[in-house]
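Incident review: delayed structure delivery

Summary: a single-chain prediction request sat in the queue longer than the usual turnaround. Root cause was a stuck worker, restarted by the on-call engineer. No data loss occurred. The affected request and its eventual output are reproduced below so the record is complete for anyone auditing the incident later.

Affected input:
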Amino acid sequence: MAGAVYLVGAGPGDPGLITVRGLELLRMADTVVYDALANRDLLDECREDAELIDAGKRGGDHTMRQEEINRLLVELAVGGRMVVRLKGGDPFMFGRGAEEAAELRGAGVEVHVVPGISSSISVPELAGIPVTHRDCASMVTFLTGHERGDRREDRVDWRALAEGHGTLVILMGMGNAGSIASDLTAGGMPGDTPAAVITRGSTPEQTADVTTLSGLEGIIREKGLTAPGIIVIGSVARIRDRLGDLR
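Output delivered after worker restart:
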C-alpha cells in the first residue's frame, strides 16, 4: 500500500507554535524528514520507532541536496511510509515546499500541506514590530535575501521597493545586509529609514536591534549577529520602542 507525504510547517522556532494538526501528524509519522530551522525539541514528540532523517540546509551548508530530498520523499512514500516533511516556518514561504509537492505529484504520490506560522510575520510581531500598522504601513513585501546561485541577474526591482511606502521583510538576508542596504539606498530610500534585525526569533535566545538602513550592516557586524535572522525595513521598526518584546 502506498504511503503519503505531509509537508508540515514547524513554525518560527518555539516548539509551542506548531499547529495542532502538525503535532498530530508528527506523533503518527513512520518517518520524519526535518530541516535545519525546525526545532529539534519537536522530534521528542515522534514515536519511539519513527525514522528521523536530517535534511537540514542553512546557507551553503547542505546535509542533503534538494534533488536528493525530493527523491527520498518519493521513495519513502512509494515504500508505504507515512512521512512528515518538517519544515521551519511555513512550507511554502521561501521553503521550497511547492517544489517538493510538485515532485511528489509528478510521481503519483499522495501529498498534503499543513501550513505553519510563518516567521516572516510572527518573528517581527514577537519583537514588538507589526509588519503593518494603520498609521504608517498599509502594505508589506516579503523578500528572500538569498537568491539562487545560478541566476545571472537580480530579479528584485530595488528602485520600486525603495520608492514604496510599505514594510520590507527580508528572510535569509543576514549575510547580504550590506548589499541590500546599498541597493535600496541607490534606489532612493533614505539612509535614515528605520530598520530592525531579529535573530533566533520566538526562542529564549531571541535578540532584536533597531537601527537605520545605513546602519544595518554595521550593527550586524558589531554585535556579531548571525543567522537565522529577519530584517525589517520601514517605519514600523520604531514601534518596538513603544511595545518592546512581546514574546
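Verification: The chain has two domains: 4-114, 119-243.
Action items: add queue-age alerting; document worker restart procedure.
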